[in-house]
What does this fold into?
Amino acid sequence: MSERILMCGNEALGEAAIIAGCDAYFGYPITPQNEVTAYMSRRMPEEDQVFVQCESELAAINMVFGASATGKRAMTSSSSPGISLMQEGISYLSGAELPAVVVNVMRGGPGLGNIAPSQGDYFQATRGGGHGDYRTIVLGPSSVQELADCMPLAFDLADQYRMTVVVLADGILGQMMEPIVLEKKPARRMAGKQGRKLPPKDWALTGAKDRPQNIVRSLWLREGALEELNHKLQAKYEQVQRNEVLCEQYAIDDAEIVVVAYGVAARIVRGAVSKARQEGIKVGWIRPITLWPFPTEHISKAADQWRIFLTVEMSLGQMVEDVKLAVAGKTPVVFYGRPGGGVPTVDEILDKIKQMTIRNKTQVTRQKTKV
It folds into this structure.
């Protein structure tokens, strides 16, 4: 049996990345993810792997590009302003169809903001973030154990689809300590599939002796060539949407209110839902684990029963737009959030649920009166 150890999220994700076969880590310090860079500076050389503290976030993402082009498992990590600086490089990675893992331990914004936890980077992560028509797979863990479990899955998804995979955490998850189990042969608890078969990296730049040369590029100047590439990428993204959706749900069957939240916000929602259930309020929750691809069908199915939805975020409302698209006007969607490092409390969310319960009963009474 594997040993349970106490680790903070930033260090846990670093060790899990090493176990997953990370060949190279490139990073630049920024709070609240500095422990990742510090941990990897010690552990990667111990494993005879590459660690480089770069001169900037721009340098880090371009080094990831170079290492990935040779077929290596490469990653970087940063926090919100640093991830913004990496967007051009992520677009280049996407245009060249290179696998990469990028960890964003989010902080408050906009601008330099503060070092408090936030979920204000959801749009950036799930909409690509940089220029052009491209997507990144986005994982939204809600515990230190799940953050560690994300890492082998992230590398596997990146290699399988030749895409950038973003692990979207926040300052709380990066800094908090929890007991976890690190499997030397990853159990892939989040993978959804056992024994994911990865394609060979026959596209990699490994020297062209005795074989035709490989070309890795994101520049396509021949007329129609870039359009062809975009259609190829879109077909791949549609495959990801069909095969890689992950979400968790609780007490949906009899729920009159469904709360949708991800990451640390989802942990707080669980406490509020538990209290509401104890008071006899029929409420459940849905937690997206893949933020892209988004669990649209799960939410749409729940909306068919005319449940009211509440979306809770540590922002002024970003994921709520995806929830509304999934609900497609079938039932109301209410939002509650706090921006700039504000963290909702269990009691705040419980009060919101109670307000919605009163509102729902009033609407039902009015409908019966009309009938």
About this structure: The longest strand covers residues 100-106. The first helix runs from residue 9 to 19. Residues 161 and 236 are 7 Å apart (CA to CA).
